[in-house]
Predict the structure.
Amino acid sequence: MARTVLVVYHSMGGNTAAAAEIVAEGIRSVAGADAVVKSAAEAGPSDLLACDGVCFGSPDYFSYMAGMLKDFFDRTFYPTQGQVDDKPCAIFITHGGGGSASTSVEKICRSFRFKQVGQTLLVRGKPDDAARTKLRDLGALLAKTVL
Ligand SMILES: Cc1cc2nc3c(=O)[nH]c(=O)nc-3n(C[C@H](O)[C@H](O)[C@H](O)COP(=O)(O)O)c2cc1C
């Protein structure tokens, strides 16, 4: 059975949604891996428990993660505590020239005890060709980690 990587994101203007779909392409490019893409609003604890790895994508809103992603973390922390230790995770942030929201996502991922794969990827605005390659590579790296 394919190993599943969950991609959880929030996007108001479409940049982070586009980036999430590209990460999913990278995941699916690895034989034996599949991607499930969900908005932070629709994802819940059962998604986090069911997946073999997880990627979080957020815009930088006021130098912090999107409130909807924070809400996802708030809702899922206790119901998954102790059951997601060392689960591989990756992080990407889209931003308008800053990107320091990455710190808030990384810190929460440490609280969940996920094991981060690669470095947090910062993408300025809508993903261009260079960013698309990096997003695909991040997805593939995460997928290979969960095989
Ligand atoms: C309310 C709001 C606050 C923002 N604050 C920042 C910020 O502090 N730093 C930054 O680099 N970009 C900031 N931006 C720009 C967004 O991070 C950037 O456009 C991002 O790609 C938007 O993602 P989305 O299209 O998925 O919503 C802000 C945008 C909005 C709407």
Remarks:
- The mean pLDDT is 98.
- The longest strand covers residues 88-95.
- The beta strands are 3-9, 33-39, 53-59, 88-95, 115-116, 121-124.
